């Protein structure tokens, strides 16, 4: 069961080299059923592929907004 409320993680101001580590720390801090909403200035598709490789079968990915200026993705922990 997913929680309606979710942590919002706006990574637009984070330096590129630090974005994925920050996102993985936030994701790893989620309990099963919890979610975070990632806010970014571009499509975070490469992050999805990295999550699929490093955390297989552990998350759900749902776009809430798809640009052109802001992307919002709900990432839920299974």
Q: What's the quick description here?
A:
With 78 residues, this protein is α+β, with helices and mostly antiparallel strands. The chain has helices spanning 16-28, 45-54, and strands spanning 7-10, 35-40, 59-66, 71-77.
Question: Explain this structure to me?
Answer:
This protein has 78 residues and is of the alpha+beta class. It has helices at 16-28, 45-54; strands at residues 7-10, 35-40, 59-66, 71-77. It has one domain: Translation Initiation Factor IF3. It contains 2 helices and 4 strands, in the order E-H-E-H-E-E. Strand 1 (7-10), helix 1 (16-28) and strand 2 form a beta-alpha-beta unit. The radius of gyration is 12 Å and the shape is globular. The protein has a 4-stranded mixed beta sheet with strand order 1-2-4-3, covered by helices on one side. The mean pLDDT is 94.
Helix content class = 25-40%
CATH class: Alpha Beta
CATH architecture: 2-Layer Sandwich
Described by the principal axes of the CA atoms, the overall outline is: globular
Strand order of the largest sheet: 1-2-4-3
Uncertain spans: none
According to CATH, the homologous superfamily is: TusA-like domain
Radius of gyration: 12 Å
The SS-based structural class is alpha+beta
Strand content: 25-35%
Major sheet description:
4 strands, mixed
Please count the beta strands (DSSP E, at least 2 residues each).
4
What is the mean pLDDT?
A: 94
CATH topology: Translation Initiation Factor IF3
Count of alpha and pi helical runs = 2
Number of domains: 1
Distance between the termini: 9 Å
The succession of helices and strands, N to C, reads EHEHEE
